[in-house]
Automatic annotation (TrEMBL):
It holds the Pfam family BKACE. One of its GO terms (molecular function) is 3-keto-5-aminohexanoate cleavage activity. Its cofactor is Zn(2+). InterPro entries: Aldolase_TIM (IPR013785), BKACE (IPR008567). Keywords: Metal-binding, Transferase, Zinc. This is 3-keto-5-aminohexanoate cleavage enzyme.
Length: 269
């Protein structure tokens, strides 16, 4: 199968500010995103009030509903700014329905907070992902994170290609500009692939730049922004997914299906 011109859409549907986690509503939103081109869904483990928690009960309920009506790839976060221990952050890793997990490889300032990822915690998370055979998506907020992952790739046997997610736009880290993006992807190890996440996004300009530079994934969704365009905020994620899919096709590329994404990233192999 030729994947050269194919791009995966990852939807992160739940805003960090959400104060009412309703599995049925999340699953329904994700299903519409799936119908509009999303091949992966990214979720955090949250309590009813939206706070991060090691209790996976609501997440598991949500995942069962999502899996009931779609074959979308399920990715769960092992991060987020909180007081959770790394063991608590990795609570969802063993879950059978979880296929991929975010991997945070370094600390960074995010707005007024500090996102702490200690070296020993990073190694613990890596070991858990490898133990349970979950595919990592490496979150890179600055070039030092990319270099850290390069060093981890020399030590551990990751399934290839390794996926790096270049995260731009948070206050306190790299801006969402083509210049910053070019600098970040210049550090991606040979043989790895990368995608783009834009926090605080109001348009899709950096997505267009990323696609032109060779991005294999585009992440959209309320976790990053609820803007469809600079003047329009939406109440569900599907219109944003559709716009991302339209952009991919407008650039003469194809939107990956979940089956294609599983084959490309060797999920479940």
């Amino acid at each position: 199968m030729n994947f050269e011109n194919k791009v995966m859409i990852n939807v992160a549907p739940v805003a960090a500010t959400c104060k009412d986690i309703i599995p049925e509503a999340i699953a329904a939103d994700v299903l519409e995103c799936y119908k509009n081109g999303a091949a992966m869904v990214h979720l955090h483990v949250r309590a009813k009030d939206g706070s991060l928690t090691p209790d996976t009960s609501l997440l598991e309920e949500t995942l069962k509903l999502i899996r009931k009506d779609s074959d979308i790839i399920i990715e769960v976060s092992t991060g987020g700014i909180s007081d959770l221990t790394i063991e608590e952050r990795c609570a969802p890793v063993p879950l059978p329905l979880v296929e991929a997990c975010s991997l945070n490889v370094g600390s960074t300032n995010l707005g007024k907070g500090v996102y702490v990822n200690r070296p020993e915690d990073v190694e613990y998370c890596v070991q858990q992902l490898l133990k349970y055979k979950k595919i990592p998506e490496v979150e890179t907020f600055e070039i030092g994170h990319t270099n850290t992952m390069f060093e981890l790739m020399q030590k551990y046997d990751f399934v290839k290609p390794v996926l790096f997610s270049v995260v731009l736009g948070h206050k306190g880290e790299a801006p969402a500009t083509p210049k910053a993006l070019a600098m970040m992807i210049d550090m991606i190890p040979e043989g790895a692939v990368w995608g783009i996440t834009h926090s605080g996004r109001k348009d899709m300009g950096i997505f267009a730049a990323a696609l032109g530079m060779g991005a294999k994934t585009v992440r959209v969704g309320f976790e990053d922004s609820d803007y469809l365009d600079p003047n329009t905020q939406v109440s569900t994620n599907a219109p944003i997914v559709k716009k991302a899919a339209d952009l991919i096709r407008a650039m003469d590329k194809e939107v990956m299906t979940p089956a294609e994404a599983r084959a490309f990233f060797k999920i479940g192999a």
